[in-house]
């Protein structure tokens, strides 16, 4: 390669000039503490880059100095824009200033300020070397090019991060743009920039032989000092950010590792995918999951959007069935029969698994085999065995025995059993024998590897609190509800009988438990593995390990118990839970129920509803009588996919109460009528009002079996 001809240039900056350029801007730190030093970092490197650029004798040396100049200008422009446009950074600056002020007088900052000035001077040293040695050569060119790459990577990282956080919120984890390939592209870019810059100085000096190396020995030493200093600063910043992200975003460190590794085309079996920026939601955002096998989409907007736009395959499975499929897989049982979903689209097949971009269905579910036992239809479900299971426990011993805390067993136990290789992430590892044998929740035979996580946020998705024993929860709730919804809640509470085991759906059903008569004691069951739910905790006493199926913080009552999801649905399937209260999108006059999906528009998933209504226990629906615009919700037959066939016993709305009469043809010889019977009516509501708001025919209780139309209870 032909050497580049030197050009007439200005002299390189003198030591006094360098000292002044790097020290004066840094003195801002005496005024505005450490945050001001960030501006000095950009200012000093920009000025030094400009001074060296004037003296650069070759285009390559000029390119090196220009990188230092552009970095400083870019950094200060970014800092200023961020502070002016993003309020939380102004708050950050104020916190830093308050911390510095509390540390003592401004003169105490002198060592910090002077060390920063020295560091900034040393960061410019490599560019001085390449100019003083008239840099040329392939190696030096490649290293200067790498420095520019680092500069552009850092700039793009800062830009993408600020844009995403401004658009989606400060607490979102950025995974797009350069963050798809680098964990921290801004810090990684700076490390590449300053490492390449330092190496370029040595490469340029080495071309001049031993004499050039000795002549520039002081600046080369300064270059190494600057590289070591900035590398230490960036490593500390990276470590601090990793700690914050581990605490805020990824208490499941194993999921964080999957995000970093980039493993894709995953089929994930989980009851749900959490929320958008947490847990499995992170893998959804990065596009690493090909198929989800779940029961509930819930509040995860990314999950729902990816499914409806055809970017994600979703196999929706009733929650209890999903838990039992895992338990069966871990127990060596290839398949089993369950009454859940018999007569629904889940059993009949045709549930969209994958949509095309135009909204048509590309993949749909296959029909399940059905068999009749003792007059009831049962659906054949196949077991699930995963290549890996990743679970979270509270404690493990060195033999792999696991202990879960609160409601933490849920799907973890069943998932652990179902994996060919089970990796358990725990908060504490103890020696074998430290956990008494009768306190082991999952034997170590199912666990292959144990990882102790460093930190856990244990994010509470729905932080619910009460006023304590002295507060009247019913009065507090009544103040938040409309008169119509309050009427439904109060009437629903009258369904509870002393000694009942009850499961309550999200919303109105859950609120009804606060209006139970003082003479009635019920035990509330939650599908995630809690029997004996207490009131919401007092503010400040919320426990992230004690939540209900709706992910709300709860407490337990004396005599309560916790267990796995498969055990929970075992008691439901066996009819041990005597009453289920839940909401509905539609109810048919024969008791058919639809409450989990509007095809192509809304997908929440069936959760545990199909299991609950197929158990043979009493099912009471609580809902507003009509949908928006007065659209009928009580119909001759449901237009939406069913949750269960002929499962509803009673409907409670703001207008009145209906009983669903099964009729003689369906095994009830003492029941003459089939269809809906209005048994209670709200104050101020006429029968004509009810007929107008109801899409199905109904009869009015008129004395048949002493059933007379009565005023609606709970008003």
UniProtKB/TrEMBL annotation:
It comes from the Eukaryota. InterPro entries: 3-oxoacid_CoA-transf_A, 3-oxoacid_CoA-transf_B, CoA_trans_fam_I, CoA_transf_AS, NagB/RpiA_transferase-like, UstE-like. The chain crosses the membrane at residues 12-31, 62-81, 112-129, 135-155, 219-239. It holds the Pfam family CoA_trans. SMART domains: CoA_trans (SM00882). Keywords: Membrane, Transferase, Transmembrane, Transmembrane helix. One of its GO terms (molecular function) is succinyl-CoA:3-oxo-acid CoA-transferase activity. This is 3-oxoacid transferase 1. It comes from Chrysochromulina tobinii.
């Amino acid at each position: 390669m032909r050497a580049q001809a030197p050009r007439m240039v200005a002299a390189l900056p003198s030591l006094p000039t360098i000292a002044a350029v790097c020290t004066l801007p840094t003195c801002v730190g005496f005024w505005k503490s450490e945050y001001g030093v960030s501006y000095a970092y950009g200012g000093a490197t920009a000025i030094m880059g400009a001074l060296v650029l004037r003296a650069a004798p070759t285009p390559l040396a000029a390119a090196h100095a220009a990188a230092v100049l552009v970095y400083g200008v870019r950094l200060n422009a970014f800092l200023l824009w961020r502070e002016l446009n993003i309020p939380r950074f102004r708050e950050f600056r104020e916190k830093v200033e308050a911390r510095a002020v509390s540390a003592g007088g401004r003169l105490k900052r002198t060592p910090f300020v002077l060390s920063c000035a020295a560091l900034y001077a040393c960061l410019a040293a490599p560019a001085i070397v390449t100019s003083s040695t008239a840099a040329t050569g392939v190696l030096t060119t490649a290293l200067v090019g790498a420095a520019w790459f680092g500069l552009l990577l850092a700039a793009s990282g800062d830009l993408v991060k600020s844009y995403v956080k401004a658009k989606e919120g400060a607490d979102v984890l950025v995974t797009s743009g350069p963050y798809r390939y680098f964990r921290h592209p801004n810090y990684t870019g700076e490390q590449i920039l300053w490492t390449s810059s330092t190496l370029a100085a040595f490469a340029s000096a080495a071309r001049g032989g031993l004499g050039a190396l000795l002549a520039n020995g002081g600046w080369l030493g300064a270059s190494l000092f600057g590289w070591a200093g900035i590398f230490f600063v960036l490593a500390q910043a990276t470590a601090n950010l990793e700690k914050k992200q581990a605490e805020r975003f990824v208490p499941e460190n194993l999921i964080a590792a999957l995000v970093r590794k980039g493993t894709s085309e995953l089929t994930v079996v989980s009851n749900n995918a959490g929320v958008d920026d947490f847990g499995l939601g992170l893998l959804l955002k990065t596009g690493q999951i090909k198929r989800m096998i779940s029961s509930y989409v819930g509040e995860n907007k990314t999950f729902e959007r990816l499914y409806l736009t055809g970017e994600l395959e979703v196999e929706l499975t009733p929650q209890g069935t999903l838990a039992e499929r895992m338990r069966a897989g871990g127990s060596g049982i290839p398949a089993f029969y369950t009454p859940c979903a018999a007569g629904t689209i889940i059993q009949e097949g045709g549930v969209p698994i994958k949509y095309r971009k135009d909204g048509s269905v590309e993949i749909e579910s296959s029909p399940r085999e059905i068999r009749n036992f003792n007059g009831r239809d049962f659906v054949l479900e196949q077991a699930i065995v995963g290549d890996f299971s990743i679970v979270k426990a509270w404690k493990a011993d060195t033999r792999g025995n696991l202990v879960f805390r609160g409601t933490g067993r849920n799907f973890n136990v069943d998932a652990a059993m179902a994996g060919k290789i089970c990796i358990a992430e725990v908060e504490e590892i103890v020696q074998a024998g430290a956990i008494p044998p009768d306190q082991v929740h999952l034997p170590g035979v199912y666990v292959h590897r144990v990882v102790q996580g460093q930190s856990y946020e244990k994010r509470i998705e729905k932080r619910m609190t009460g006023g304590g024993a002295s507060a009247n929860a019913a009065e507090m709730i009544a103040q938040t509800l409309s008169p119509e919804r309050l009427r439904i809640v109060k009437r629903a509470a009258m369904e509870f009988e002393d000694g009942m085991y009850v499961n309550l759906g999200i919303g109105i059903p859950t609120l009804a438990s606060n209006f139970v008569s003082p003479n009635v004691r019920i035990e509330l069951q939650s599908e995630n593995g809690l029997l004996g739910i207490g009131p919401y905790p007092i503010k400040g006493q919320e426990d992230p390990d004690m939540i209900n199926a709706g992910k709300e913080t709860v407490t337990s009552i004396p005599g309560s118990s916790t267990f796995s999801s498969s055990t929970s649905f075992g008691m439901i399937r066996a009819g041990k839970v005597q009453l289920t209260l839940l909401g509905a999108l539609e109810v048919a006059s024969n008791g058919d129920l639809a409450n989990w999906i509007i095809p192509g528009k809304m997908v929440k998933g069936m959760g545990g509803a199909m299991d609950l209504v197929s158990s043979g226990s009493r099912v009471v629906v609580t809902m507003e009588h009509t949908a928006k615009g007065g659209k009928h919700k009580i119909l001759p037959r449901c237009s939406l996919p069913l949750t269960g066939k002929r499962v509803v016993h009673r409907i409670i709305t703001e207008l009145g109460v209906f009983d669903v009469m099964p009729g003689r043809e369906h095994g009830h010889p003492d029941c003459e009528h089939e269809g809906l019977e209005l048994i209670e009516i709200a104050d101020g509501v006429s029968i004509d009002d009810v007929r107008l708001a109801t899409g199905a025919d109904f009869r009015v209780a008129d004395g048949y079996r002493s059933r007379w139309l009565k005023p609606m209870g709970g008003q």
